[in-house]
Structure formats: structure tokens, C-alpha cells
Design goal:
Elements lengths: L3 E4 L9 H16 L3 E6 L9 H14 L5 E5 L4 H13 L3 E4 L3 H13 L9 H5 L9 E4 L6 E4 L7 E4 L7 E3 L7 H11 L4 E5 L6 H10 L6 E5 L2 E2 L15 H6 L4 H10 L12 H7 L10 E2 L2 H14 L2 H14 L10 H8 L6 H12 L7 H7 L5 H13 L5 H15 L3 H13 L7 H8 L1 H16 L1
Parallel strand pairs: 1-2, 2-3, 9-10, 11-12
Antiparallel strand pairs: 4-5, 5-8, 6-7
Helix pairs in contact: 1-10, 6-7, 9-11, 12-13, 12-14, 16-17, 16-20, 17-18, 17-19, 18-19, 18-20
Bound molecules: glutamic acid (GLU).
Length: 465
């Protein structure tokens, strides 16, 4: 048996991190078993599905690097197939036309509510078995009336439902369009899905889907229902808690590698190991080891993981993702140091790519001004001659190299018999506008000779005025 998993999002919004984690588990499980991973867009809800949401899913998956072996399939392109299977179920007696009016259904529901019964269809049309007539109708699945359905769940263990609890589900609406649970069944069968890995919010759909799969004579997939992700307050993770869409995490400066690593650990573990390469995960991940209890999203831990990746990935790899943040700030990467040099200089000092880009801005763009307190404290008359001397030495450097810059600063410090910070801080303010930057020689090196000299001269002017 070739393992086949699928990620089947409904395109009604953005790609939620919970969905991304499900997709990751599906992807890893398929990889581990040399199987295939399918992407299926469940866009049958025409009112709620949008093209933007489809694009957001595709963008999110691409950014995460979760490439599909098959798809994307679009359910809206498979309507003829759903109709065919509906006919098949009608012919085999596993489905029937229901002509009950809205009013009748409404009355029934109200009566059930008054009697404190679970609202469900009373199967009148199933029992009447009327010949087909020219009236609006829906098609319902004939759910078995007794016995039980066992979900073989790899995470939760067997989950048992009684058939008496299940309704005769509508599989085609009066306009002929198929309903959600039915399209999932047809697709899972047609696409040869062997492992349905999805959020635990779908547990109630599963027995209905299993009954339909059985009616179609399909081999049942195994199921793995993944517990929800909660916010710090114990409630389902939502916008209230901060970023929830995958692309929002990109915007906030996370690396896809870090988000994936964080997400895989959110609900799964391998001893107390925190950092995993994708390769390792492909070998280690087993859906059976996914935890049964809900996981709590921890922003601090995600930041820690992100920082770990910023520090340890090759600078070229980090640089590939830094580019996007440069573009957001209008930084032209050609007008300054290489991206790799920036990554090396700043990787220990920031937690996100966004921060990195913000801190890098001074190396590419004109200074927007000085931090007021910093200027007051460090750009003083006493330091002016020191800055003058440093300016001369730096101007005279034949090549703009780190060791030479370092020496020029050392020599200036020695000349005035002052401590290093006494020059480094004023220089920092002159070059970056603030007192925080990488080591002073690196800062000058990244800023480039011309801009360094200009900015020191400007600081001297500032002091004079
Ligand atoms: N389309 C469903 C959703 O986005 C998922 C269906 C499934 O995984 O079976 O929640």
C-alpha cells in the first residue's frame, strides 16, 4: 500500500497556523513512507470561497515549502463526478430523494426541540419511497439505522459512534450541488487517500463519511484527528491572540524553517529534542506519536526557535528571506553591503527578520536623524576633536577593510588616551543615529567608506551648531 495523505483546506480566509500544522503532519507522514501528499481545495461553498483565499493557501504552502505531489485539485471542477456518484448511491439504494418542504422540516425541528430530542430528519421520504416526481427535492444518504461506527483513530484511539445518533445526511441540495461531507468522501475514495490527518473539529463528520465510504465499497482510510491549538488563555487560537495566518508570520519576520519546526513540536515530540531538520523529521515523524491533548501556542518559544535558525542557518539561506523584508522597507540591497554581511553582523542581535531589516536600514539609506537623548549625551564639544582625528584616519585608509578600520579607531583612542567606548558611542550615534549597533568597526564597515565619512562630518557640524 502506498501511503497517500491530503491537505484539504476550504478557501474561506487565510492559511491558519493550525491548518499549516495539519498540512505539515500530512506532508511529513507521506514523506516518511515514500508516499504522496495531495493538496485539495475544498471550494464547494461558493458563497464563502474566494480566489484570494485560494491564493493565500497556495502562497502559504509555497512559503513553507510544503510542495504537493498531486494537485491542487479543486472540488468545483469535480461536480460532474459528484453527480455520477450520487446517481450510483441512488441506484444502489444507499440514497433517496427527499421532497419534504422547508416548513415541514422546520416544524419537525421545533417539535424535537420542545421534546428535548436531538434534531434529525425523521426519514419520512426514505420510508415512503415515493416514485420520482417533478418537485424540488434534496438527496439524502440512507444512513444505517442500527449498529455502530468505529473510527480507527491513530491519535485518539478507536472512537465509537452509534448509528442511531447519525442523521440521513443531505448529499445533494435542491439545486443539485453536492454537500461538504459527500465531496470529501468521493474525493478521498477517488484519490486513494489512505490516511486522513485533520483537525479534531472534524471528528463528528467522520462516522458519516465512513458510512458513505462503506456504501461505495471503498477501502476505509485510517484517521488521525489532531487536537486543536489553543491561545495562552486556553481558548481556541484566533486573531485575538495575535498572528494566526501563515503569511502574517512571514510579515512579522519568521523564517519558514523556524515556523515549521515550532509547529511540528506543537503537538508532537521526540524525547526533549526541540530543533529538528526537515530531513530528521521525515525520518522521525509518526502521526501515532501526536499528543492527544490540545497544545498551547507560545509566542516566546516561537521567537526562540526563530532566533536559533537565524543564528545557525547559513547566511545565504537567511538572506533569501531577508530580501522580502528589505523590499517592504524600500531598501535597495544593491546600495550597500551584501545581505550575507548584514545577516552575519545582526544575527545575534535580533529575533526576527523584520527587526534585522529595520536595523540594517542605516547601512543602505540616509540617516533620518539622531536619537535625541543619545545625541545630547554623546555628540558633545569635548568629543569633536576626537571625531576630527578619527575622520582623518579613516579618510586616509587605502582600503575599507575591517582590520584597517579597527586599527584607525584604536589609534585614535590611543592618541587621546581615552577608553574605547568613549569614541565608539559617539561614532555609533554619528553613523546609526542611536547607541545600539554591532561592534563599531563592523558598523563602519557595513556603512561603507563614503557614508561613514559623510556622517562623521555631519556629526561634527551638528556639534558645532
Ligand atoms: N475542508 C475542511 C476544512 O478546511 C477539511 C476537510 C478534511 O480535512 O477532511 O476544515
Amino acid at each position: 500500500m502506498t501511503v497517500c495523505t491530503r491537505f484539504a483546506p476550504s478557501p474561506t480566509g487565510y492559511l491558519h497556523v493550525g491548518g499549516a500544522r495539519t498540512a505539515l503532519y500530512c506532508w511529513l507522514y507521506a514523506k516518511r513512507h515514500q508516499g504522496k501528499f495531495i493538496l485539495r481545495i475544498e471550494d464547494t461553498d461558493l458563497e464563502r470561497s474566494t480566489d484570494e483565499a485560494v491564493q493565500a493557501i497556495l502562497d502559504g504552502m509555497a512559503w513553507l515549502g510544503l510542495d504537493a505531489d498531486e494537485g491542487p485539485y479543486y472540488q468545483t471542477q469535480r461536480f460532474p463526478r459528484y453527480r455520477e456518484v450520487t446517481e450510483q448511491l441512488l441506484a444502489s439504494g444507499h440514497a433517496y430523494r427527499c421532497y419534504c418542504s422547508k416548513e415541514r422540516l422546520e416544524e419537525m425541528r421545533e417539535a424535537q426541540q420542545t421534546n428535548k430530542e436531538k434534531p434529525r430528519y425523521d426519514q419520512r421520504c426514505r420510508e415512503l419511497n415515493l416514485p420520482h416526481r417533478e418537485e424540488p427535492y434534496v438527496i439524502r444518504f440512507s444512513n444505517p439505522t442500527d449498529g455502530e461506527v468505529v473510527i480507527p483513530d491513530l491519535v485518539m484511539g478507536d472512537i465509537i459512534f452509534q448509528n442511531t445518533e447519525l442523521d440521513d445526511l443531505i448529499i445533494a441540495r435542491s439545486d443539485g450541488t453536492p454537500t461538504y461531507n459527500f465531496t470529501v468522501v468521493v474525493d478521498d475514495k477517488d484519490m486513494g487517500v489512505t490516511h486522513v490527518i485533520r483537525g479534531s473539529d472534524h471528528i463528528n463528520n467522520t462516522p458519516r463519511q465512513i458510512n458513505m465510504l462503506k456504501a461505495l465499497g471503498a477501502t476505509l482510510p485510517l484517521y488521525a484527528h489532531i487536537p486543536m491549538i489553543l491561545g495562552s488563555d486556553g481558548k481556541k487560537l484566533s486573531k485575538r491572540h495575535g498572528a494566526v495566518s501563515v503569511m502574517q508570520f512571514r510579515d512579522e519576520g519568521f523564517l519558514p524553517q523556524a515556523l515549521l519546526n515550532y509547529l511540528v513540536r506543537l503537538g508532537w515530540s521526540h524525547g526533549d529534542q526541540e530543533i529538528f531538520s526537515l530531513q530528521e523529521l521525515c525520518e522521525l515523524f509518526d502521526v501515532k506519536d501526536v499528543h492527544r491533548s490540545a497544545a498551547t501556542f507560545d509566542d516566546e518559544k516561537l521567537l526562540w526557535v526563530n532566533q536559533h535558525y537565524l543564528k545557525t542557518l547559513p547566511a545565504t539561506e537567511v538572506a533569501q528571506h531577508l530580501v522580502w523584508h528589505f523590499q517592504q522597507l524600500g531598501i535597495d540591497a544593491n546600495q550597500g553591503p551584501t545581505l550575507e554581511a548584514v545577516v552575519d553582523a545582526l544575527k545575534e542581535r535580533v529575533k526576527t527578520l523584520k527587526e534585522m531589516a529595520e536595523k540594517a536600514q542605516v547601512f543602505y539609506q540616509p540617516l533620518s536623524g539622531y536619537d535625541e537623548t543619545a545625541a545630547q549625551k554623546f555628540l558633545t564639544a569635548t568629543i569633536e576633536p576626537v571625531l576630527q582625528s578619527a575622520l582623518q584616519r579613516l579618510t586616509a585608509l587605502p582600503a575599507w577593510e575591517l582590520t584597517a578600520i579597527h586599527q584607525a579607531i584604536q589609534d585614535t583612542v590611543a592618541e587621546f588616551n581615552i577608553k574605547m567606548p568613549a569614541l565608539a558611542q559617539p561614532l555609533r550615534v554619528a553613523i546609526t543615529g542611536s547607541t545600539v549597533s554591532p561592534s563599531i568597526d563592523v558598523t563602519l564597515h557595513l556603512t561603507g567608506k563614503q557614508h561613514t565619512l559623510e556622517r562623521i562630518a555631519a556629526a561634527i557640524e551638528f556639534i558645532k551648531s
